[in-house]
Structure formats: C-alpha cells, structure tokens
Amino acid sequence: MKEEGSSEGIEAEGLFLFTWERQCIRALDKSLTLLIRSGRILMESGAEIYRVEETIVRLGKALHLKEVQSYCTPTGLFIGYTHDEEPRTAVRRVFKRAINLRRISEVNDLARQFSQGKMSVESALLQLENIEKQKEPYPWYWQIFCISLVAAILALLNGGKGLEFAVALLVSGLLRFFMFKSKFFMNTPFLREFALGAFGMVLVLLTKTMLDVQMVPIMIGLLLSAFPGAYMVNSVRDIVAGDLLAGAIRGLEATGLTVALFGGAGMVLATLGNGYIEEVTTKASHGFAMEMLFGFMIAAFFSMALNTPHNTVLASGLAGLIGRSVLVLTILLGSTPIMGMFWGTLAVVILSEIMARYYKVPVTLFVIGGIIPLLPGLFFFQATYTLVQGDYVRLIEPFVQGAMGIISIGAAAAAITGLVRFWKTSR
Questions:
Q1: Which of 6, 55, 65, 125 is least enclosed by beta carbons within 10 angstroms?
Q2: Dist. CA 38–CA 57, nearest whole Å
Q3: What is its main location (predicted)?
Q4: For the sheet containing 76-83, what is the strand order?
Q5: What's the pTM value of the predicted model, to 2 decimals?
Q6: CA gap 408, 424 in Å, rounded
Q7: How far apart are CA 148 and CA 416, in angstroms?
Q8: Distance between CA atoms of residues 420 and 354, nearest Å
Q9: Strand, coil or helix: what is 91?
Q10: What is the pLDDT of residues 13-59, one digit of tens each?
Q11: What distance in Å separates the CA atoms of residue 191 and residue 262, rounded to the nearest whole number?
Q12: Apex CA 64: angle with CA 63 and CA 70, to 5°?
C-alpha cells in the first residue's frame, strides 16, 4: 500500500482536483452559454425586454447560479452572477433585430420546461441550436402573400373596392419580393421603411397612370401593412413592466420607423403625385359581418407573416375579429373612432391574455396581429397629404387624431398589462 502523503498520493489528489475544477468550469461555461444564447435569440426575434430579463433570471436560478441578475437594452445583454464568492459579468451585443413569433414561443417553452427540471443543460443547448436552424413554419413566398393580402384587405377597409384590392395585392407583392431579395434594404432599419413608403408610392402612381383607381386606400393598405405595431406593443409592455429605458427606446424606434415609412411616401407624393391623388376621405361601405371577417383575416395573415406557430393562427384571427367588431360597434353607437380604438384594444388584450394561458405561449403572439385592424392609418395619411401640400392648418386635425388613436391603443394595452402583472406578482 502507498503511504498517506506519498508523492504518488499527492499527485493523484492534485490530478483529481484539477479534473474537478475543469469540469466545474465547463459546466459553468455551458450554463452561461445557455443564458446568453436564449437571451440573444429572444432579442433578435423581437421579444419584450422584460421577457428576456425574466427568462435569463429564471434559467439562472434553475442552473443554481448565485445572485443572477440581468439587464438588457434593445442592442445588448448584461448578465451578472456570483461564482466562488466573486461577482462576474457577461456582456454580449445584439446586432440583428426582427420579429419572429415562432422563436419567441419556442424559447419561452424551453425556459418553462428547463425551470421545471424536464431537461438537461446539454439538451437545452441542443434545442436552442435547433430553434435557430430549423425551417420557419411558412415559406418566404407564403409570408409575402400573407402581408400582401393584409395590405389588400386594409385597402378595402379604407374605402377601396375590388380594383383597389387587386392593385394593393399586386403592388405589395412586388414590393415585398424586391425588399426580400435586396439584403441591403432588408437589413437596414429606417432605410427599409423609407424605401417601402417611397417605392410603394412610385408603384401606385405608375398604376394610376394606367388604371382609374383610388390611390388613397391602396397607399393606406401598403403603409399599415408595414406599420411597426410590434415595436409599439413591446414598448408599452416594457414600460408597464418597469423597464423604462428599454420601453422609451422601443417607443422612439417605433416613432422613427413610422416617420420614415410615411415620410418616404410623402416625399414621392410631394414630388410626383399632387396631380394624381384625390381628396382623402373616411368613407367606408362594408357591413358589420364583413368588418368582422376582415378583422379576422388581417390578424391571422399578419401573424403568419411574422411566423406565428400553426396552432395559434385561428386564435390570432379571433383577436382581430373581436377588436374590429368592438371598434365598429363603438362607432355605430355614436362614439368616436378614438374611443373605438381604445375599447377594441382593451378587448384584444384581455382575450390575448386568456388565450396565452390556454396555449401556454407569450401574449404578444395574439396582441400584435390583433391591433393591426385598429390602427388609425387614414388619419396619418391625411396628415401626410396636407403636409406635402403645405396646408399646415389642416395638418393639425388629422395628426392629432392619429396621435390620439395611437395613445388610446397604448393606454388600453398598458391598463390590462398592468392589471395582469399586478395579479401575477400579488400571487
């Protein structure tokens, strides 16, 4: 037998300690990789900042990391924890930002299963890799068709008829196909929205020279189908969750994208289109049943364009149907469109909260599509039209109406989100 304290025993003990330390370091590296990758995927997919932070903290606690903290901005991840009584920090930049509802839903489900002890770190990392690599639920050409159909239906809702529907569908399809193939525009925020507005107006003007169509419904459909509604929803939800900086940044980003979108259309309109455009009106000629159907179709197809999971498509459409129905009923009862947007959004968010718990997915999967049929696109286009004509007095009314519409939508979303968060924390 070897004597205790012999050189061979000391070497064996040292080798064991070295191997144990390396295993601990590897386990810590895997844990940190899991936190960073899950947070990065969520942020690149357009999740709310508070959701990213809560997911990282939940995973960190499940990994038994000490004093896990997470602070995120729309462009960066900051993760803090304690190891061997020493505070450590991991920082990662986030460069890509888009909206992908499928990835948000799957990472949310992974975090829930992992926190319940249903999978190992290795399995979670492998699943995250699969989430990034697997094909989207809808091919690119179907997404282009979906967003083009949304533009066409929105043209109908804003006074268009069959010809305007067909032109909006065709023009939006051509425009989206060009943007999809042009990586320069697709990967450059603000320039992308400016190009969508400008090129869209050019195509509509060219169509106007050949066909007797109403330009206004077509352009409203094109612009609203590109409206950054997801950023607006995330801004409100982040502010309610207490992430004031992230919420303010997201709100500023949504405002900038909207200005770029309508600004691109306005510049082309001011340069080429004053002789072609007709007076902007609020006339609509659809029955209540058709309004409900349009609301359903807009929300469902818009959600599919953002890669929502297959099993949530009908629920997303239901949110749009309810929201549009409440808006129309409010107006029929003699109230203003602004109040209709408020009550419609209230109904959409309440229903979305219920469906999110039923399907066990993030509530944004239903809210984003549900508010699109409620957006005040006509007011903003009226403001753009009067601005390019230099009629600054008439500019004030539609601009204030559009701004109040957005504020009413945000206020309704904030009210329900705040009540739900209070209920969850009080439990």
A1: 6
A2: 11
A3: membrane
A4: 66-73, 76-83, 86-93
A5: 0.88
A6: 24
A7: 31
A8: 11
A9: strand
A10: 443 333 433 444 455 677 888 888 999 999 999 899 989 999 999 99
A11: 12
A12: 75
